[in-house]
Amino acid sequence: MNTEHVIEVSGLSRRFGGTDALRNVDLQVPRGEVFGLVGSNGAGKTTLIKHILGLYRCQRGSVRVYGMDPVKTPEKVLARVGYLSEDRDLPLWMTVRELLGYTKAFYPGWDDAYAAELVHLFRLDPNARLQTLSRGQLAQTGLVAAIAYRPDLLILDEPSAGLDPVVRRDILAAIIRTVADEGRTVLFSSHLLDEVERVCDRIAMIQDGKMVMHGRLDALKEQHHHLILHNMNGHTSDLRFTGELTRERVGEETHIIVEGHREILEAECSGIQRAQWDLREPSLEEIFVAHTGRALWAMNAK
Amino acid sequence: MEVYLNTNDGAPLYRQIMQQIEAAIATGLLRPGEAMPPIRVLAQRLLINPNTVLRAYRELEASGLLKSRQGAGTVVSGEGSPLATNAKEALIRKQVHALTVMARNLNISGPRLHELIEEAYRPEHTTCREPGAHS
Fold it and tell me: Pairing between strand B73-76 and A224-230?
């Protein structure tokens, strides 16, 4: 029994028609952490989340949430989970107050004071009908419904997609508040690496249904290096570095992303004149591109 | 003190926080005995994971710059001068570490490295320091 992992996914595969949506995915989400699922649209993030919620049955592999199978005992799993879906699928005919009253009925742990505080904080009108709300207000309303019963596990699917910076801030603040509450866990998917970097302890990068990379965010950052070679008049092409992922020429400079120990890379550079190389720490975006060969922002542009 | 974070900079956020606190202690902006903001408060203000703030504080405690007191939160350690001994040593220790790694990679022995440092430490040499080795 492993109670330290709130979510355990092993060997999960899923096909829709002729397409592999998930291929042999393993995922462990430790208790009390913020876990970020990073990938472009269509990479498989939502499909994975729907398996965790028990909305999809596993074709191959297994999913356990708090040690339980979410398909067999959905009521036990969902009682501990707060969920905000990507398309917010909220009952648009209800008012904000009706929605919260309706959600409250399902959860004994509902905290009226906390719900009221959030409604006030987000400046929501309790009497407004959901269909009259803006995209941002709908997201905020969905968020109140997902966190006001203080779930042990909060799952947010692309919480800030298409939202303005003010509402994104509210959502990030809610995530931070949730984990600051002892022992609560957050899983959220995003293609906005800035917010992922701000709030995640651990991330998994998913691409074409496969887990490309996962681990503690700070460890991943420390394992990747951005080497810049200057003015080497074409003498760079025969230089190879251990753990090299990608290289790109930009004018007189060659940019190389390397995975491995910094000391080894520095030793390998010691044969090059000191003025001709520079070592930087890559951003999460650069690491993602190095592993997938594609930029997130380019894939999400519609 | 204000902390500024930049997610386009590759440096992990906990290290950006550490560097700014180190600098604030070294320059006397943060004084010995001064209370640091509570972890949750700083996390909410910076809009980052509380564990990131916790990690920055823990590492600064390990290097002796901060200390946590039961019930009194985290405070800046050291007495007397604004740049306390701990802070000074923590700053120089990092440079020494980088130097020894480099020396090993270049096959320069420990005793030889000592000699080089002795040589560089003599007053007439202090003007030709490498950038980044400033104290």
Answer: unpaired
Residue A185: φ, ψ to 5° = -120, 145
CB atoms within 10 A of CB B8: 11
- A-chain CB neighbours of B51 within 8 Å are 33-34, 179, 201
B49: chain A residues, CB-CB within 8 Å? 34, 176, 179, 198-201
Token duo for residue A141: 């309303």
Smallest Cβ–Cβ distance between A34 and the set B40, B49, B101 belongs to B49
Distance CA B21, CA B13 (A): 12
A207 has which bridge partners?
A210
Question: What's the average model confidence in pLDDT over B35-52?
Answer: 91
Residue in chain A nearest B100 by alpha carbon = A263
- Classify domain B13-76 at the CATH topology level: Arc Repressor Mutant, subunit A (1.10.10)
Over the stretch B80-132, which tens digit does the pLDDT of each residue have? 444 556 666 777 787 888 888 888 878 889 999 999 988 888 776 555 455 54
Structure confidence at residue B22 as a pLDDT band (50, 70, 90): confident
CB of A204 closer than 8 Å to CB of A213: yes
Beta bridge partners of A153: A81, A185
Domain boundaries, chain B: 13-76, 82-125
Any idea which residue has 């022992």 for tokens? A183
Looking at the DSSP bridge assignments, the partners of residue A63 are: A9
Give the C-alpha distances (Å, rounded to integers) separating A96 from A78, A112, A294.
Answer: 22, 14, 40
Interface test mutation site (partner A, options B4, B39, B51, max chain A beta carbons within 10 A): B51
> CB distance from A257 to chain B under 8 Å?
no
ipTM (interface pTM):
0.70
3-state helix, strand, coil in chain A (%, to 5): 35, 30, 35
pLDDT in tens, A201-212: 999 999 999 999
- Assigned token pair, A79: 């009682």
Quick check: A283 and B9 CB within 8 A?
yes
Interface contact A261, partner B, CB < 8 A: no
Cβ distance A198 to B13 less than 8 Å, yes or no, reads yes
Yes or no, beta carbons of A198 and B101 under 8 Å apart:
no
Per the structure block, which two tokens stand in for A77?
A: 């799993």
